[in-house]
């Protein structure tokens, strides 16, 4: 009887060890970064009129205290289009105008013109990167990518410049 209890005990302990050590599938969760975007651009302009305005951008990176040798860069890339890009990767392969964040999280937008009238879009994305010193002569880079789309009604006659 003692042998059967010992065998059952060994079997039970072995079973617990196997279950506890088994590779369990890890549930992957996409982390949603906290991003605030305020677009201050006109909704209507004339053909060949330059857009003037700005975007106020902030992210969870605002709360980080960067050391002297650590940096943060925010770039906005925009293009004009008749339809917004559905594929983010495709948008990244075309020629885009580049704008940079200045003080108080403002990204000025200027000198973009539409040469056709109708319903058009400014379409692009913001890259927000921080470069952190990890203390081992390496740099850790963290990036937040945010897609930006703004519709604009372009009015007036089409003129060739």
Quick overview of this protein structure:
The chain is mainly beta and 161 residues long. The protein is 15% helix and 45% strand. The protein has one domain: Immunoglobulin-like.
Write up this protein.
With 161 residues, the chain is mainly beta. It has a single domain (32-155), classed as Immunoglobulin-like, CATH 2.60.40. The protein contains two helices and eight strands, in the order αββββαββββ. The chain has helices at residues 2-21, 88-91; strands at residues 35-40, 44-46, 51-59, 71-81, 97-100, 106-112, 118-133, 139-155. The strands form two sheets. The protein has a five-stranded mixed β-sheet, with no helix packed on it. It has a three-stranded antiparallel β-sheet with strand order 1-3-6, with no helix packed on it. The longest helix has 20 residues, at 2-21. The chain is elongated. Mean pLDDT is 82; it is low at 22-31.
């Amino acid at each position: 009887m003692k042998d059967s209890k010992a065998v059952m005990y060994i079997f039970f302990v072995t079973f617990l060890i196997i279950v506890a050590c088994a590779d369990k599938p890890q549930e992957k969760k996409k982390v949603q970064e906290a991003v605030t975007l305020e677009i201050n651009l006109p909704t209507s302009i004339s053909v060949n009129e330059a857009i003037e305005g700005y975007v106020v951008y902030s992210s969870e990176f605002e709360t980080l205290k960067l050391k002297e040798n650590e940096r943060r860069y925010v770039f906005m890339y925009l293009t004009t289009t008749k339809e917004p890009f559905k594929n983010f990767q495709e948008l990244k392969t075309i020629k885009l105008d580049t704008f940079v964040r200045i003080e108080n999280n403002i990204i000025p937008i200027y000198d973009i013109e539409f040469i056709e009238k109708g319903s058009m879009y400014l379409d692009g994305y913001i890259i927000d990167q921080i470069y952190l010193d990890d203390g081992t002569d390496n740099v850790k880079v963290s990036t937040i990518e945010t897609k930006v789309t703004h519709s604009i009604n372009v009015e007036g006659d089409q003129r060739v410049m």
